[in-house]
Amino acid sequence: MFTNVLYFPFLMVSALIYWLLPKRGLRTGFLSLCSLAFIWHFDPKALYVVLALTLFTYGMALLMVRSQRQQLYHSIGLLGLLLVLIAFKYLGFLTETVNGLTSFVSSLPQFEIEKLFLPLGLSYIIFKYISYLTDIMWGIVKPGRFIDFLCYGSLFTTFVAGPIERFERLKPQLESPRDRFQVNHLEVAFFRIVIGLFKKLVIADWMGYFINPIWQHPSEYSAIIRVAALFGYSMQIYFDFSGYSDIAIGSSRLFGLTIMENFNNPYFAPNISQFWRRWHISLSDWIRDYLFFPLSQGRSSKLWLTLFVPVIAMGLCGLWHGAAWHYMIWGVWHGIGIAIYQYWNQYKRAHKKRMGWTKAKWANNLGILMTFVYVTIGWWWFR
Amino acid sequence: MEQKLIDFITEEFLSDDDDPITTQTKLISSGLIDSFSLVSLQTFIAKEFGKKIPAPKITAQSFDTVAQMMEIIDQF
Question: Is the separation of the CB atoms in A137 and A37 below 8 Å?
């Protein structure tokens, strides 16, 4: 979307009108309208889905705070959101999987379900709305005004590829009555957008130019070239995605909004746990808060906490990226990596006297290298 | 309350040759506690102090020292 010829003229004009409007509420309303127009332009059907999801989620939020049955309405809200996600994104995949399993027995019926269209930005908005409802239940945030919530859900600068911002962070910015245009907004926005475009259009696309033919016809290349292509893809996907995030963060800044950072030199992480604190941070925070913690609470089994929770959480994280087994395998690969790291940590703690070498600089560098290689192998399934 | 937290962290996450921690010791950013250990810390706080701290509040930025933990616990 960001590389679409219309994106930047649309961004500039909408930001100009935004700052010319006298009141905060009017600005938020205008930004919401721009966002809805953006969604409609790229995917008209998605607009109806976004509006329906927004009304449903906001309604559930109001019921949660106004009734005594907060848990019930939270559950209904989550169930509704997940059903929408499953219906649009995973129904075809689930049907194919069931058919594949039952095909071994000829007497079992085969299901035929027509795949629904996948609305633009669905995975992102569903995760944002799940965090919204859950944060209300946890008492972290209040439902806020509908116009602010609509702006949060539909914000066109982050709608397609995140970051998965939390309402808790955006709400005070949207409510602030004294918000005025600052030259600093323009400077930060320009800097981040230029950096993002450079990462995406110059580095990532240029690398793709060399790498894509190798992936398309691997048998025509030697093993060394294929391995080089895998490492190349590792860099390509980083520059592509972090470039997108830079553009999203910079574009949001044009409206005075500070969106959370999504990348922090992930390939310099000394272990897989640190990697996930630096790669797609908004998603890994989401997984940690709404999957990892709830799955871990009230359980004392070391095996469950150390192995199963990371594997399940990361497997689902993989499926979130796309409705296909290879995404899930990629997630499980990372889950296993995290589990191994946790076992290693436990071992280190138990044998601390013999583990002094792990604090040495060379050990840290070895950790960076091993993590990079592990993550890069994982990209083989992802691609 | 502070001392109970320090005792729990010392017993659960530190070994004999680690320096004693204070309320200002950086625990997560220094690598003494990894993010996965935070679940058991959350469970301990819930059991011991009856305070259920939501996961989004337990981050390396806001939960790095015992003093910061106390601030968050007071909010709930």
Answer: no
CATH number of the domain where residue B68 is located? 1.10.1200.10
Taking one residue from A and the other from B, the number of pairs with CB-CB distance under 8 angstroms is 55
Q: Domain of residue B13: give its range.
A: 2-75
Q: How many domains does chain B have?
A: 1
Judge whether A212 and A121 are in contact, CB under 8 Å: no
For residue A288, the chain B residues in CB contact (below 8 A) are 35, 55
CB-closest option in A273, A285, A352 to B34:
A273
* Cα gap A352→B17, rounded to integer Å: 8
Task: Assign 3-state DSSP to chain A and report helix, strand, coil percentages, each to 5.
Answer: 75, 0, 25
What are the distances in angstroms from CA A313 to CA A165, A219, A251, A292, B52? 20, 35, 31, 6, 22
Q: From chain B, pick out residues whose CB is under 8 angstroms from the CB of A273.
A: 34-36
As for the ipTM of the complex, it is 0.73
Using a CB–CB cutoff of 8 Å, tell me whether B54 touches chain A.
yes
pLDDT tens, N- to C-terminus, chain A (383 residues): 777 888 999 999 999 999 999 888 899 999 999 999 999 999 999 999 999 999 999 999 999 999 989 999 999 999 999 999 999 998 888 888 888 777 777 667 776 766 678 888 999 999 999 999 999 998 889 999 999 999 999 999 999 988 999 999 999 999 887 678 888 889 999 999 999 999 999 999 999 999 999 999 989 999 999 999 999 999 999 999 999 999 999 999 999 999 999 999 999 999 998 899 899 999 999 999 999 888 887 777 888 888 899 999 999 999 999 989 999 999 999 999 999 998 998 888 778 778 878 888 999 999 999 999 999 999 999 98
Min Cα–Cα distance to chain B from A272, Å: 12
